[in-house]
Write a structure and sequence with these properties.
Layout (H helix, E strand, L loop, with lengths): L1 H18 L4 H4 L31 H17 L6 E4 L12 E4 L2 H14 L5 H21 L9
Antiparallel strand pairs: 1-2
Helix pairs in contact: 1-3, 1-5, 3-4, 3-5, 4-5
């Protein structure tokens, strides 16, 4: 899982600096400069969160896509309950410190929604980032850390 996640970060950040896409925090207030006559700027719009690297593809999506795909491949299913815990002393803004998900797709949906709603990403950046992570995890699972011979 960690190998897949690390490799996905390498692939994903390579893509970020290849595409160098602007984030909603830049695009929405400056929509009158994007060359598309169908977009209107909102100079007062502000995201809930900001980061300082290119937007596309989503880093959280390629990382979590790799982690969740590796876990699903290891267990042979993505349909199991998983409880994730957060630490309020590390993240004081946490409202809820523990969340339980019925399956891995529910975790991915929540990650994608949170990143879009926070104003960090566009929806396609989440989808494409997740695809990158899943593809990397599939490659790692198929080619590495496999038994070299059958055991009796």
């Amino acid at each position: 899982m960690h190998t897949a996640a690390a490799d996905a970060v390498i692939v994903g950040f390579n893509a970020k600096y290849f595409f160098r896409s602007w984030r909603p925090r830049t695009a929405i207030p400056r929509a009158d400069t994007d060359g598309n006559p169908d977009t209107d700027p909102d100079p007062t719009w502000k995201p809930f969160l900001t980061v300082n690297h290119p937007e596309y593809p989503s880093g959280h999506a390629f990382y979590s896509g790799a982690v969740l795909e590796a876990v699903a491949r290891y267990f042979g299913t993505s349909k199991f309950s998983w409880t994730l815990s957060g630490n309020k002393s590390a993240v004081p803004q946490l409202v809820q410190t523990e969340r339980t998900y019925a399956n891995l797709a529910a975790i991915n949906r929540e990650i994608a929604n949170a990143r879009v709603w926070a104003g960090l990403h566009w929806r396609h950046s989440m989808r494409d980032g997740e695809r990158i992570g899943r593809s990397v995890a599939d490659r790692v699972f198929e080619n590495y850390f496999r038994p070299t011979r059958k055991h009796d």
